[in-house]
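Hello forum,

I keep getting stuck at the same step: I have a sequence, I want structure tokens, and every attempt I make locally crashes halfway through. Rather than fight my setup again tonight, could one of you with a working pipeline run this one for me? It's a single chain of 319 residues.
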Amino acid sequence: MKLAFRFVAVAVVLVLAAGLVFYFHPLWVADQQTRLHLWREGVKSEYVEAGGYRLHYFEALPSSGDGTPLVLIHGLGARGEDWQKMIPAMARHGFHVYAPDLPGYGRSSKPADANYSIGMEEAAVVSFMQAVHVPRADVGGWSMGGWVAMKLALDHPELVERLVVYDGAGIYFPATFGSDLFVPNDAAGVARLVRMLSPHPKTMPGFVVRDVVRKLQRGGWVVDRSMAAMITGRDLLDFRLHDLRQPTLVVWGSDDVLIPLSVGRKIHEDIPNSVLNVVEGCGHLAPLECWKPVAQATDSFLKAQPPMQGGEKTFPASE
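Reply #2:
Ran it on my machine without issues. Output:
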């Protein structure tokens, strides 16, 4: 009887402890769940020294053990985990996937004296590819990562076989937000950010919102520096996109409020022979919230022989 009582008491204590951890650190718990999911999918979490930075990255091999290299570049304030659906999906499609955390983000180095400009992040991707011995790859970039990917394809065409841009920045458009959008300091700010990212925002409990604010505030200085560098316009690609020669797929959520579809259409028009895929009913988070059709469209484009050229296709988010 005493043994049973002790067992119950220990179980109650563990449940209470777990509940407290979840209450005070819900995002940490969510991160562990995401990383466990990736690990169970065969995705490795690695580090490499590249360009003077210690970069964290995810790597996934196809079941064949080989495959076309695919480098995925995340966006502003994001990290490799944001590709959590796309990484295993593209590995299942036969690609050798790499998803680095750019300097300043995720588990990579965050040097205090860096400006976190598009040019700096591009150089970090070049160094990363060299460090993991990938001389040439298909490259996909999401949001700010799309900007980095397009600049990489222009500056280092020898590194990029085919290019995919997901709801990408990189050309001028009249933005309705500043850096404060990405570094909210209260519940109203978090709600505004979520509405900008997704057309179907989910209500978050107050304790989760508080943790979101804490996390975004901690990394806010990197976002502020990156936004300050972008706002200068030094790295804008408006007058360079016509020089892109790689086969290019532009993927956009039809309901993207952060970077509207009109921007995607302009990028499509400016890149010779590019293909535009529009995901109906999806917002800025297409590679996460609408990952199934996005992964399928990416796979079809990257494997097409001869490469797809021109045209626009619209497909449902549930495809």
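The domain at 43-175+239-316 is CATH 3.40.50.1820 (Rossmann fold). If your local run keeps crashing, start a new thread with the error log.
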